[in-house]
Amino acid sequence: MDIQFLKGIGNSFVVKEMAIVSDNKIGHWVFKPHHGEIFVPRWIRNQNQYLKINHHGLVWEQGDTNLGEMANILVSHIGVGDCVYTKGDEKVKLLKSWGIDATELGSLLCPAAKKLSYEVISCNSHAQGTKVCALNQALKFSKWLDTEFQQLGKNNLNVYISKLHQKEMLTK
C-alpha cells in the first residue's frame, strides 16, 4: 500500500492519493479535499506547492473520490487481520491510527521505491515529470514482497519478520 499526502489545516496530513495492491486486487484513488485551499494557511500552501513541484505533482483541487469514502474503501480492500505493508513511519502510524495492522517495509530491509528497478505502471494523475506515484510505488513494493516470499518461503518470511522485530526491540 502507498499513500501520498498534502498538508491541511493545522498542518495535518490530507490523503491525496492511495493505492492498495493485494494478491487479487489493485485499487487506486485520488481524493477530493473537504474544503477549498483558500482555508489552508499560506505557509502550508507553500509546502504543498513544493510537494507538487518536487515530489508527487498532485494539486489541492484534484481528485475524483470523496475523502469520506476512504473508510469504505479500506474495509472493502483490507480484510480483518490482514497486515498491510507500506514504506514510511508516518504512513504506518496513520494506518495504525485507523486500526489497521501495518508493517514498515524498511524494517524488512526493503529499499526505497526509486531504487527498485521493477517495470510497473504509473497513473495519469500527476504532473509530467513528477517522481512519485502511489500506484507505481505500491506495485513496486508488492513485487519486492513477492520476490522475498519466493526466496524465503512464506513460513520463513514470518520467522524473518519476527527476528527483525526482535532486533528492533533490542536496539530501542
List keywords for this structure.
single chain; 172 residues; four-stranded mixed sheet; 5 helices
List the helices and strands and how they pair.
Layout: E1 2-7, E2 13-21, E3 26-32, H1 42-54, E4 65-66, H2 70-77, E5 83-86, H3 89-97, E6 101-104, H4 134-152, H5 154-171
Parallel strand pairs: 3-4, 5-6
Antiparallel strand pairs: 1-2, 2-3
Strand order of the largest sheet: 1-2-3-4
- The strand count comes to 6
Helix fraction bin? 25-40%
Shape: globular
Give the class from helix and strand content and strand pairing: alpha/beta
Mean pLDDT across the residues is 85
Taking the sheet with the most strands, its summary is: 4 strands, mixed
End-to-end Cα distance, whole Å, is 26 Å
Strand content: 15-25%
H and E string: EEEHEHEHEHH
Low-pLDDT regions: none
Return the domain count: 1
Evaluate the radius of gyration.
17 Å
Number of helices: 5
